Amino acid sequence: MTFVVRESRDSDVRAIHEIYSPYVVKGFATFEETPPTIDELRNRRDTMRAMLMPHLVAELDGRVVGYCYAGPYRVRPAYRFTVENSVYLAEGFGGRGIGTALMTALIACCETGPWRQMVAVIGDSANAASIALHLKLGFRHVGTLEAVGFKLGRWVDTVLMQRALGVGRATPG
Asked: Rounded distance, CA 42 to CA 37, Å?
């Protein structure tokens, strides 16, 4: 299986919508409860790209089978060197190294920018695959916020994980 990780294009947004929507309606990886429209996802992508944040896809045989991006962790100025990552795979494509390739590329892209820390806010403390992926890529568990979301009839935790980018905190901003 050969796949390519590349910058997303406007033409990828429909596939991104198809990948993301099941996470919204059936899962806990995101706390959104109504799938955003294709236009909303396009606007989100355009916003990240305007901020020079990476927005990547994995393509297999001409089909987008996963995507990831980095965005601001928080809006207040002191957080300007910290990004939050998101990664989603099409149904049936987990366990093939696609998530690892996407996240490895995302981390590399972020290390070329001004960012020093990457934070993962993982929906559901039972999301073993995402937690394992982040651990594999050098993230460490920094906390769990218990029962902070209510979705699909149950309370849901978020797991916070973090990794340094580049020199991290070794030098002043």
From this structure: 9
Strands 82-89, 117-123: pairing is parallel
Report d(CA 2, CA 106) in Å as an integer.
18
Residue located via tokens 């999301």: 127
pLDDT digit string, tens, across residues 30-87: 999 999 999 999 999 999 999 999 999 999 999 999 999 999 999 999 999 999 999 9
User: Which residue type occupies 14?
Assistant: R
pTM: 0.96
E-strand stretches of the chain: 3-7, 55-60, 63-72, 82-89, 117-123, 140-151, 154-164
Cα separation of 138 and 164, whole Å? 8
Q: What's the distance, Cα to Cα, between the start and end of the chain in Å?
A: 41
Question: What would the pLDDT profile of 113-152 be if each residue is shown by its tens digit?
Answer: 999 999 999 999 999 999 999 999 999 999 999 999 999 9
